[in-house]
C-alpha cells in the first residue's frame, strides 16, 4: 500500500470482497481468467476512488478497504455490484460473482495497517455472504445515515460468526438492480439445521418414532412411505430434530414439493446447504463435492413431486460421501440400492393394553381442545371420539380437519356426518386443484396431488376399488374388472394409494377410508358408478354362494363366522341396491344374512334393509318374483319376532303365506307355513300354535317336503316339552335328527340336541341332559350361533342347579343374561322355565352369594362363558355317581315347574 494513502481513524467501516468460486472460474477460463480479474479490479477501484475509500490490500481476487463513512462504504458496494452486473462480460459463465461484507468499529491505524478484532469481524461477515450479496453488521447500519438512494437493509437475524463467541445481527443490502434471493448466510451455527418450526404439539407415534430412528441410525437411505395426510413429514421432522447433535455438519430439510422442474432438485438441495452455482459446472457436482467430507443428514420431503430427479440427487449424494445420510418422505419408493422402505401406519385407533386413549383419539382430543379455545371434550363424548377416529382410519390429516369441525359440531354430530367423509372434513374450504403449498389444506387437495400422477389403468382401478368396504385379495380385484390387474395394482401400492397387507394365505389390499371416499367421488364423476357397483353386488352374491360350498363344490355346514368378514361388503352392496341398484339383487343378499342378523342381535337392521328394498321396488317399479317376495316376507317376520315386534311378526307371516300360495313351490310354502306358529307362541296362544304345527307337519309329509317344515317340528317339540308331553317330544325329535343333519343351513345349530337336553332335564336325567346340551353348545359356538348359544348356556345353568352346583349355575345365568342384553335377545318360550330355575338358585345361595356369582358371570365374554359351561364335570365323574350301579334307579331332581319325574330312557 502507498504511504500517501490516508487511513481513516475513529469509527471506521471495513469492507472485504472476493469472487465466489474463483478457483473454479480460473479452471474454466484458463488464460482468459487474468483479463477478467483485471477488469474486475478496475471496476472496484473506480468505485472506491469515487467514494474516497482506502484500499489497504489487494490479493488475487480479494479487496480489503476502509472507509471513514459507513454510508459511503455502502454506496461503494452498491455501485460496485451494479457495475459488475451491467458490465459486458465475455460469456454468462465468465461473470464474476462478488461477495461483500461490511463492519463498523473503533480503530486507529499503526504503521499503515489496522490491528483490531473489528477487521476480523468484517472478514467473517464477508465470508458469510454469497456471490452478488452485500452483508453488513448492525454497527454499520447504525452509522450509515443517510442510506444510498433507493436502498434499504433486510434484517436476516442473529448468526454466530466463525471465531467469535457472540452472535452478530446481519443485514442484507437491498436495492434496484441487485439480486435479492440468497441461501442462508454461511455461518457457524451451534446446532446446524433448518428444520421447520412446528406450531402444534406432536402427539403419539412413540413406537413408530423409535422404529424409524433405529432404521435411520443403521441405514444411509430410509424412505418413509405413506398416502397423503398420514403424517410422514411430521414424524420425519420430529425425528430429525432429535438427530441434530449426532450430525455435526447439520440436518437439512428440503421441500421437493416446491420444485417445479426436475432439473432444479439439485439446486433446491444446494440452496438449503448455502451453495451457489459455479460457472461451467453442474450443480449436482458442486453439491457432491461439498457433501463428500461432511457428516450430515438431508431430509428430502415429498419426493413424489419429482421422483426421478430426487432419486438421481440422492444417489449422487450417497455415492459422493460416506458421512451423508438421507431421510426421504414420499408416496412411492425410489428403488435405489441400499434403500430401506418404511411404510408409516395410520395412527392406532385401539387403546393400548396398559390403558389410556389410542394415539388417534389423543390427537383428536388435543386438536379439538385447541379448536374449542382450550375446552376439552366432555368425557361422555369418549365413545363418539372413538367412532370418529375409526371412521377416519386413524389418518392424521383427516383427524386434524375433523377437529376443526368441532368448533361448530358436537362429537356425536361429527360422527353421524362422516358417511360423507370428504364433504364433512373439507366443509368451508375451497377444493381447487392443489398447489404445492396448499396440498394439505383439504383432504380433496392432498389426494388429488397423488391421483393426478396415476396412469389411466391405475386411476381406473383406484376408482373401481372404491366399491369395496374392506380388504380384498388379488382374485377378487381381477373378478371385479375381469382382467389381469397386477400391474395397475402394483402402481397403486407403490404410490401408497392402496395398502398391501401380506399374510401367509396371500396378500390382501385395502384403501384407507378417506382415500376410498375420494375414489368414490372420482368413480361417480367418471360415469362408472352404476357399472362398478352392480359388479360389486354380483361379486357379493358370488361370495355368499362360495361360503356355502366346500372345495369339492358340495354344500357345507353354515358357519356364521364365515359371514363376519363379508358383512361390510354385503352392507355396501345392500346400500347400493336400496339407492341406485336392483331391489331384487338386494333381497337375495339379505337372504344370505338372514340368520346372521338375528344371531348377532341385529334383527332390527335386517328389517331396516328389507323396508328400504321394498321402497326401492315402489320407486323403480321393479317386479320381484313371488317366490322371492314370499321368502323376504318370511324373513322379515322372523326378524320382527326376534325384536319382540309381535304384531309386525304376524303381519309379515300372513303376507308371506298369501304370496307363497300363489307359487307352485311346495318347499317354499312349507318353510313359510312352518313359521306360522312363531307369532302365536309369542302372543301366548300355545294351543293354537300346537295345532298349526301339526297341520303343517302333516301337510309337509303328504307333499314330501318335511325337511322344509323342520321349523314347525322344532316349534311343536318346544310346545310338547312345555306342557310335559316328554315322550312325544323325544319321539318327534328322534325322527327329526337325520332331517336336520341333511340340511347344511341348520345342522350347525344342533336344535335337536338342545331340545333333547331340555327333555332330559324335565325327566331328571342329568347324564343325557349334560351330553345333549354340551353337544349343542359346542356346535353353536363353533358355527357362530350366539343367540341360540345363550339358550344353551341357560339350559346348562339349569343342569348345574339340578346337579347340586348352584354357584356355577348362577355364574352361567349371569353370563347368558348379559350376552342376551348385548344381543337384544329374549329367551322366548324358555323364558319362564329359566326364570324359575334362576329364582331357585337364588333361594339356595342367598341374595348376597347369588348376586356375587351372577355379577362375576355377567363380566365374562361369550367365549369365556362357553368354556366354563363346556368344562362342567360330567355327572358320571361326580362323587357317588350311580350311572353304572346295577339295579339302582336314576336320581330325580326337584323341578321348579312341578313334581320330579324319573325316566330310565335317554332321549
TrEMBL record:
One Pfam family this sequence matches: HTH_77
Record organism: Salinispora arenicola
Single GO biological process annotation from the record: cyclic nucleotide biosynthetic process
Entry GO MF terms: adenylate cyclase activity; ADP binding
Identification of the protein by name: Putative ATPase
Residue ranges annotated for the Guanylate cyclase domain, each copy included: 13-126
Amino acid at each position: 500500500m502507498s504511504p500517501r494513502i490516508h487511513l481513516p481513524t475513529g469509527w471506521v467501516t471495513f469492507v472485504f470482497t472476493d469472487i465466489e468460486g474463483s478457483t473454479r472460474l480460473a479452471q474454466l477460463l484458463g488464460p482468459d481468467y487474468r483479463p477478467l480479474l483485471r477488469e474486475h479490479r478496475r471496476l472496484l477501484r473506480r468505485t472506491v476512488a469515487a467514494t474516497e475509500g482506502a484500499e489497504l490490500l489487494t490479493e488475487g481476487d480479494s479487496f480489503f478497504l476502509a472507509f471513514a463513512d459507513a454510508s459511503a462504504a455502502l454506496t461503494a458496494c452498491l455501485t460496485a455490484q451494479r457495475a459488475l452486473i451491467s458490465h459486458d462480460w465475455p460469456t454468462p459463465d465468465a461473470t464474476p460473482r462478488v461477495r461483500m461484507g461490511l463492519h463498523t468499529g473503533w480503530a486507529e491505524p499503526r504503521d499503515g495497517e489496522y490491528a483490531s478484532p473489528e477487521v476480523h469481524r468484517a472478514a467473517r461477515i464477508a465470508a458469510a455472504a454469497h456471490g452478488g450479496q452485500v452483508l453488513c453488521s448492525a454497527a454499520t447500519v447504525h452509522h450509515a445515515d443517510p442510506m444510498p438512494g433507493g436502498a434499504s437493509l433486510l434484517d436476516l437475524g442473529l448468526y454466530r460468526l466463525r471465531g467469535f463467541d457472540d452472535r452478530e445481527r446481519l443485514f442484507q443490502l437491498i436495492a434496484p438492480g441487485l439480486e435479492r434471493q440468497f441461501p442462508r448466510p454461511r455461518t457457524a451455527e451451534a446446532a446446524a439445521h433448518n428444520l421447520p418450526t412446528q406450531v402444534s404439539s406432536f402427539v403419539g407415534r412413540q413406537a413408530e418414532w423409535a422404529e424409524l430412528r433405529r432404521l435411520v441410525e443403521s441405514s444411509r437411505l430410509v424412505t418413509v412411505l405413506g398416502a397423503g395426510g398420514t403424517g410422514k413429514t411430521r414424524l420425519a421432522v420430529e425425528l430429525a430434530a432429535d438427530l441434530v447433535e449426532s450430525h455435526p455438519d447439520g440436518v437439512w430439510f428440503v421441500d421437493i414439493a416446491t420444485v417445479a422442474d426436475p432439473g432444479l432438485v439439485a439446486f433446491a438441495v444446494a440452496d438449503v446447504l448455502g451453495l451457489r452455482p459455479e460457472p461451467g459446472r453442474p450443480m449436482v457436482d458442486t453439491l457432491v463435492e461439498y457433501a463428500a467430507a461432511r457428516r450430515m443428514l438431508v431430509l428430502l420431503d415429498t419426493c413424489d413431486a419429482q421422483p426421478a430427479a430426487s432419486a438421481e440427487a440422492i444417489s449422487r449424494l450417497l455415492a459422493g460421501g460416506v458421512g451423508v445420510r438421507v431421510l426421504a418422505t414420499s408416496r412411492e419408493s425410489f428403488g435405489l440400492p441400499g434403500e430401506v422402505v418404511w411404510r408409516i401406519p395410520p395412527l392406532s385407533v385401539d387403546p393400548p393394553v396398559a390403558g389410556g386413549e389410542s394415539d388417534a383419539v389423543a390427537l383428536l382430543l388435543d386438536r379439538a381442545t385447541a379448536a374449542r379455545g382450550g375446552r376439552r371434550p366432555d368425557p361422555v363424548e369418549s365413545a363418539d371420539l372413538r367412532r370418529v377416529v375409526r371412521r377416519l382410519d386413524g389418518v392424521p390429516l383427516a383427524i386434524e380437519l375433523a377437529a376443526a369441525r368441532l368448533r361448530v359440531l358436537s362429537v356425536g354430530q361429527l360422527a353421524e356426518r362422516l358417511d360423507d367423509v370428504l364433504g364433512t372434513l373439507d366443509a368451508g374450504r375451497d377444493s381447487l386443484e392443489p398447489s404445492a403449498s396448499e396440498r394439505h389444506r383439504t383432504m380433496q387437495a392432498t389426494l388429488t396431488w397423488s391421483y393426478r400422477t396415476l396412469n389411466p389403468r391405475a386411476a381406473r382401478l383406484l376408482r373401481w376399488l372404491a366399491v369395496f368396504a374392506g380388504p380384498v385379495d388379488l382374485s377378487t380385484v381381477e373378478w371385479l374388472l375381469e382382467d389381469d390387474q397386477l400391474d395397475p395394482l402394483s402402481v397403486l401400492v407403490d404410490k401408497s394409494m392402496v395398502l398391501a397387507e401380506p399374510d401367509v394365505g396371500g396378500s390382501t389390499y385395502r384403501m384407507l377410508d378417506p382415500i376410498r371416499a375420494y375414489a368414490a367421488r372420482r368413480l361417480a364423476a367418471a360415469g362408472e358408478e352404476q357399472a362398478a357397483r352392480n359388479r360389486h353386488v354380483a361379486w357379493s352374491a358370488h361370495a355368499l354362494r362360495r361360503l356355502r360350498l366346500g372345495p369339492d363344490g358340495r354344500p357345507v355346514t353354515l358357519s356364521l363366522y364365515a359371514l363376519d368378514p363379508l358383512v361390510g361388503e354385503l352392507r355396501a352392496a345392500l346400500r347400493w341396491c336400496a339407492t341406485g341398484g336392483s331391489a331384487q339383487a338386494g333381497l337375495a343378499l339379505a337372504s344370505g344374512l338372514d340368520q346372521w342378523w338375528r344371531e348377532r342381535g341385529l334383527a332390527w337392521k335386517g328389517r331396516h334393509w328389507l323396508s328400504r328394498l321394498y321402497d326401492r321396488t315402489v320407486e323403480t317399479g321393479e317386479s320381484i318374483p313371488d317366490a322371492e317376495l314370499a321368502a323376504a316376507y318370511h324373513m322379515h317376520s322372523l326378524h320382527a319376532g326376534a325384536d319382540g315386534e309381535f304384531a309386525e311378526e304376524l303381519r309379515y307371516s300372513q303376507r308371506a303365506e298369501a304370496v307363497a300360495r300363489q307359487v307352485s313351490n311346495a318347499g317354499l310354502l312349507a318353510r313359510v307355513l312352518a313359521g306360522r306358529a312363531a307369532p302365536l307362541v309369542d302372543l301366548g296362544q300355545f294351543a293354537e300354535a300346537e295345532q298349526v304345527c301339526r297341520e303343517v307337519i302333516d301337510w309337509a309329509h303328504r307333499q314330501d317336503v318335511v325337511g322344509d317344515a323342520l321349523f314347525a317340528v322344532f316349534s311343536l317339540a318346544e310346545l310338547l316339552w312345555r306342557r310335559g308331553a316328554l315322550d312325544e317330544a323325544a319321539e318327534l325329535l328322534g325322527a327329526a335328527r337325520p332331517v336336520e343333519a341333511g340340511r347344511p343351513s341348520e345342522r350347525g345349530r344342533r336344535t335337536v340336541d338342545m331340545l333333547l337336553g331340555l327333555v332330559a332335564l324335565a325327566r331328571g336325567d342329568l347324564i343325557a341332559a349334560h351330553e345333549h346340551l354340551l353337544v349343542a353348545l359346542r356346535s353353536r359356538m363353533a358355527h357362530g350361533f350366539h343367540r341360540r348359544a345363550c339358550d344353551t348356556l341357560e339350559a346348562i345353568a339349569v343342569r348345574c342347579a339340578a346337579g347340586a352346583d348352584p354357584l356355577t349355575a348362577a355364574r352361567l345365568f349371569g353370563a347368558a343374561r348379559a350376552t342376551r342384553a348385548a344381543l337384544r335377545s329374549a329367551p322366548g318360550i324358555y323364558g319362564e322355565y329359566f326364570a324359575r330355575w334362576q329364582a331357585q338358585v337364588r333361594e339356595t345361595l342367598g341374595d348376597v352369594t347369588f348376586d356375587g356369582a351372577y355379577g362375576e358371570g355377567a363380566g365374562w365374554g361369550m367365549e369365556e362363558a362357553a368354556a366354563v359351561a363346556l368344562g362342567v364335570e360330567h355327572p358320571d365323574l361326580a362323587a357317588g355317581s350311580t350311572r353304572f350301579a346295577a339295579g339302582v334307579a336314576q336320581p330325580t331332581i326337584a323341578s321348579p315347574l312341578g313334581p320330579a319325574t324319573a325316566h330310565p330312557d335317554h332321549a
